[in-house]
Amino acid sequence: MIQTIRLILTRVATMRAKSSEGKVTNTTPMSLLEVKLSLPTKIIFGDAAIAQKYDAAELAQLSKIRLGEGTLGTLYKVVLNCGSIITMRKIRDGLVSTADLEFWIKFFGGLSDEWLLPMQFSLWYGGEAFVIHEYLCLGSLEELLHGENKFL
């Protein structure tokens, strides 16, 4: 996969204030360094209109709260800039081949049942696969069934 990286740099100038003794007392930046990355995005499953509501670069850069680790990868709670909350699973690298991963995501994304949480969409961003679900505020199913205290 070819990754396109576009960097936009602005010049950083500094203004130095000198004390009466000729020593530099502080350095103040006149402009900020700006770097923007543009990585390829590909929708694996889901409606493109829903996926367009989310910016893949924003999803990748927002702070995430780790909810758990599973066989497929790590599950995160993400609070978007607009205030809504989603659940994002970052699929573990090397789990299966790219073609197999896309097949299984499309298969499980197409399942519909009242007991299953529907997948909103799934995408590739910068060589990593992500699955996006709505966030359920009641906690994990394991905690609801077995309680928070586990006996070893």
TrEMBL record:
It comes from the Eukaryota. This is Uncharacterized protein.
